[in-house]
Write a structure and sequence with these properties.
heterodimer; A: about 325 residues; alpha/beta; Rossmann fold; seven-stranded mixed β-sheet; 13 helices; 14 strands; about 40% helix; globular; B: about 325 residues; two-stranded antiparallel ribbon; 11 helices; TPP-dependent acetoin dehydrogenase complex, E1 protein subunit beta (chain A); oxidoreductase (chain A); thiamine pyrophosphate (chain A); THDP-binding (chain A)
C-alpha cells in the first residue's frame, strides 16, 4: 500500500497506461505544463498543451480515437464541457452507431466538478447526468484514490468514450492505493459498508458523507449499508437491487440536482424491480435546482450533509411517512 | 500524382461528374415520387468533388459534410450501397444506421459525413494527429462549406492544425449559400481563403466549377501538405444549384443569380471543352450519360430490393 491523492493516482494510471500502450496520449489545457513528469517521460508528441478551446480539444480526441489513437483529454472544469458537448455527444457518442460499427471512439474526457473549493457556478456544476443520458458514452465518478487509479486504467482501455469526473473535494485527500496493478472494471459498484436496515446509495464525495452518516446511525442502533456506484453508466443495477432487497429501504445521495438526476434513475429502478421488497419510499437527498454558489456556507448548504442522511435513514427505519428535504 | 495511380484524363473527370449528377437526379426523382428521406444534394458542385478527390492517394482520409454524395462517389463508393444507406436499408455503408446525412465508409478512407455543420472541422485535426503519430504518408482532406467557415470551430481547427503541424488539406466549397441564407448576409468579404493567413497557413482559391482547374489546384495543394506535413486551405468557388434540401425550393433566390451560375455549370463546361477539342463526339457524350444513368438505375434496383434492418438490431453497436 502507498498513500497518495486522487490527482497522483490519476497521473500514475495515465503514466502506466502510456508505458503499456504507445497509442495512449494526453492533451489539454496545461497538460504538458502541469504534468511535467509525463512530458519528461513520454515527450511532446504524446503529452501536449492545447489552446483554451474545449470544442477542438474534444473533437481532436474523437478524430484521433476513430483512427487508431487512445487519447485522454483534460478539459479542467465540468462547466467547460458545454463548449465540447457537440464533439462529445454528437460525434464521440454517436458515430460508432451511425457508422454501423465501422469506427470506435476509445477516449477519456477528464474534468473536475463539485463543491469544496468555492469556485462558483462556472467552475462547479455536476453535469454527470447529462452524459449518462447520452447514448454511446460511459460515465465514471470515483470516491477513493485507488478507484481513481483503477477506473482511469479501465477507462483508457475501454473502446468507448468515457467521461471521467473528479469531485474536486477529493483531489488532494490522500488515501491508500495498492501496489502493482490496480484495475477497477467499469460498471461495478462497491459496497463500502455492509448493513441490514437501510441502504445509502451514492458516488463521489457524498460516499464519504454516507459513511460518516452510517457511523452515526450505527451508534443509534441502525444498521446502514453504503454503496459507492463508482460508474454511473453502465450502472451496476444488480448490486443496488441486491442490497435494497436485503434492507428494504434506500436513501440516494448526490450533489447534482434532483430533477432527472442519477438518483431519479436509481429510484425508478427500485420501484420497477424491487417494489415488493421496499418497506418505505425511496428518498433522494441531492443538491438544489440552483447554480452552485461560491460562498462557503452556501456551498455547504448546497451539498448533502451527514446529519440530513442520518435523519432521513432514521425516519425511514421508523417508517415515518414524512422525510423533510434538506433545502 | 501517386506513382500507382495515373492522372485522370479529362474524360475520366467528366465521367465521374456525370455519375454524381445522375446519382443526385435519381435521388431527386425518388423524392418527387415520394415518400423519401430528406436529402441535401450537391448538384452544381461536382467539379470540386471530382477535382479534389482525384488528386488524392488511396491512403488519404476524408471528412466531409451533408453534401457528401459527390465526394463519396468520386472516391469510388458503390452507388447502390449509398442509395441503400439513404433509404435505411441494411446493405448500406452504415447498415442503415446513418441515412443520407452521416455516411462513412472506412474502406474508402471516408471517416465521417457530418451534418452538424463544422463537425467535420472539429474531428479533422485528430484524424491528422493519428496520421502524424502512427506513420504513413497519408494526408487528411476536410470538406466544408462557407457556412461552417463562419463557425468558431473553423478557427479552432485551423489554429490547432497549424500549431501542431498537422497534414490537413482543408477544402472550402464556397457554394454561396448557408442553408437558407446567402453568405453575403453572414460573412465579411467574399472569400474564406484569405483567413488562412491568420493561422500561418498557405491557401489558394480556385474556380470550383472547372474540374481541370480544381484537379490542378488540389494536386498542388495536396503535394504541399504531403511534403510539409502542414495544413493548407483550398477554396473552391462554386454554386449550390438546388435548394438547401429536397424538396427543391429556390423561391428565395434571385433568378438572375441562378441563371448566372447555371451558365457556369461544371459538367456543361467540360463537355463543351471536350467536344470542341474533338476528344468527345456527341454520340460519345450521349453514351457516357447513358452509362451513368444505367449505373444509377442498377443502384436504385439494388437499394430498393435490399431489406430493412431487423428491428431486433435497434440497439446493436451503440457500444464497442
Amino acid at each position: 500500500m502507498s498513500l497518495m491523492t486522487a490527482h497522483e493516482a490519476l497521473d500514475q494510471a495515465v503514466a502506466e497506461e502510456m508505458h503499456r500502450d504507445a497509442r495512449v496520449l494526453m492533451f489539454g489545457e496545461g497538460v504538458a505544463t502541469k504534468r511535467k513528469h509525463l512530458l519528461d517521460a513520454f515527450g511532446p508528441q504524446r503529452v501536449r498543451n492545447t489552446p483554451l478551446a474545449e470544442g477542438i480539444i474534444a473533437g481532436t480526441a474523437a478524430g484521433a480515437a476513430a483512427t487508431g489513437l487512445r487519447p485522454v483529454v483534460d478539459l479542467l472544469f465540468a462547466p467547460f464541457l458545454c463548449f465540447a458537448m457537440d464533439e462529445i455527444v454528437n460525434s464521440a457518442g454517436k458515430l460508432r452507431y451511425m457508422s454501423g460499427g465501422q469506427f470506435s471512439f476509445p477516449m477519456v474526457v477528464l474534468t473536475m466538478t463539485g463543491g469544496g473549493w468555492t469556485v462558483g457556478a462556472q467552475h462547479n456544476h455536476n453535469l454527470e447526468a447529462w452524459f449518462v443520458h447520452s447514448p454511446g458514452l460511459k460515465v465514471v465518478m470515483p470516491s477513493t484514490p485507488e478507484d481513481f487509479k483503477g477506473l482511469m486504467k479501465a477507462a483508457i482501455r475501454d473502446e468507448n468514450p468515457v467521461l471521467f469526473f473528479m469531485d474536486m473535494a477529493l483531489a488532494f485527500v490522500p488515501g491508500e492505493v495498492a501496489e502493482g496493478e490496480v484495475f477497477v472494471p467499469l460498471g461495478q459498484a462497491a459496497i463500502r459498508r455492509e448493513g441490514t436496515e437501510v441502504t445509502l446509495i451514492s458516488y463521489a464525495k457524498t460516499v464519504h458523507t454516507c459513511l460518516a452518516a452510517a457511523e452515526t446511525l450505527a451508534e443509534q442502533g441502525v444498521s446502514a449499508e453504503v454503496i459507492d456506484l463508482r460508474t454511473l453508466k453502465p450502472l451496476d443495477e444488480a448490486t443496488i437491487l441486491a442490497s435494497v432487497r436485503k434492507t428494504g429501504r434506500a436513501v440516494v445521495v448526490h450533489e447534482a440536482s434532483r430533477l432527472c438526476g442519477v438518483g431519479a434513475e436509481v429510484t425508478a429502478l427500485l420501484s420497477e424491480q424491487a417494489f415488493d421488497a421496499l418497506k418505505a419510499p425511496v428518498v433522494r437527498l441531492t443538491g438544489p435546482d440552483a447554480p452552485a454558489p461560491s460562498s462557503y456556507p452556501l456551498e455547504q448548504a448546497f451539498t448533502p450533509q451527514a446529519d440530513a442522511i442520518v435523519q432521513a435513514a432514521t425516519q425511514l427505519v421508523a417508517r415515518s411517512p414524512e422525510v423533510a428535504p434538506i433545502w | 500524382m501517386h506513382p500507382s495511380r495515373p492522372a485522370p484524363t479529362r474524360l475520366d473527370l467528366l465521367g465521374a461528374m456525370l455519375r454524381i449528377r445522375a446519382y443526385e437526379e435519381k435521388i431527386v426523382a425518388f423524392h418527387e415520387r415520394g415518400p423519401f428521406p430528406h436529402v441535401c444534394t450537391s448538384v452544381g458542385q461536382e467539379a470540386t468533388a471530382v477535382g479534389v478527390v482525384s488528386a488524392l492517394h488511396p491512403d488519404d482520409q476524408i471528412l466531409t459534410n451533408h453534401r457528401s454524395a459527390g465526394h463519396l462517389l468520386a472516391r469510388g463508393a458503390d452507388p447502390g450501397r449509398l442509395l441503400a444507406e439513404v433509404m435505411g436499408r441494411s446493405t448500406g455503408y452504415c447498415k442503415g444506421r446513418s441515412g443520407t446525412l452521416h455516411i462513412s465508409a472506412k474502406e474508402l478512407g471516408v471517416i465521417l459525413t457530418s451534418t452538424i455543420v463544422g463537425g467535420e472541422l472539429s474531428l479533422a485535426p485528430g484524424v491528422a494527429l493519428s496520421r502524424s503519430l502512427l506513420g504513413g504518408e497519408g494526408i487528411v482532406v476536410c470538406f466544408f462549406g462557407d457556412g461552417a467557415a463562419c463557425e468558431g470551430i473553423f478557427h479552432e481547427s485551423l489554429n490547432l492544425a497549424s500549431v501542431w503541424n498537422l497534414p490537413v488539406l482543408y477544402v472550402c466549397e464556397n457554394n454561396q449559400w448557408q442553408a437558407f441564407v446567402h453568405r453575403k448576409e453572414t460573412m465579411v468579404g467574399d472569400h474564406i481563403a484569405p483567413w488562412a493567413a491568420s493561422y500561418g497557413m498557405d491557401s489558394l482559391t480556385v474556380d470550383g466549377n472547372d474540374a481541370e482547374a480544381v484537379l490542378e489546384a488540389a494536386t498542388r495543394a495536396a503535394a504541399q501538405v504531403r511534403a510539409t506535413r502542414r495544413p493548407f486551405l483550398l477554396e473552391a468557388w462554386t454554386y449550390r444549384q438546388r435548394g438547401h434540401m429536397e424538396p427543391h425550393d429556390q423561391s428565395y433566390v434571385d433568378p438572375a443569380e441562378i441563371q448566372t451560375w447555371l451558365a457556369k455549370d461544371p459538367i456543361a463546361r467540360l463537355e463543351e471543352r471536350l467536344l470542341a477539342s474533338g476528344e468527345l463526339t456527341r454520340e460519345g457524350l450521349e453514351a457516357l450519360r447513358a452509362d451513368a444513368r444505367a449505373a444509377m438505375e442498377a443502384a436504385a434496383d439494388f437499394a430498393t430490393a435490399s431489406p430493412y434492418p431487423d428491428p431486433s438490431e435497434l440497439t446493436a453497436g451503440v457500444y464497442a
